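Entry for the shared binder. Reason: the reviewer on the internal report wants the predicted structure included alongside the sequence.
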Amino acid sequence: MNKYVVNVLRIGYGSLDLEIEADNEDEAVEIALDNAGNESFVENLSEYEVGYVEGCEVFNCNEEALRKRVEDE
């Protein structure tokens, strides 16, 4: 049996209703998008994709090397 490193990407989708005071809809959208990073979203959907697959003969599969690679990213 061969060993592989499979990089899995998780993409989460969430939504949140924000009450915004603004002069018009465009300004309300701009303010909401500017403030969105400061809010907590409830994730309601996730998708998973493969970033890459490498065999252990190419990619160092030892646990310590993998952990260091994740920490460096």
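Summary line for the report: Residues 4-72 form one domain.
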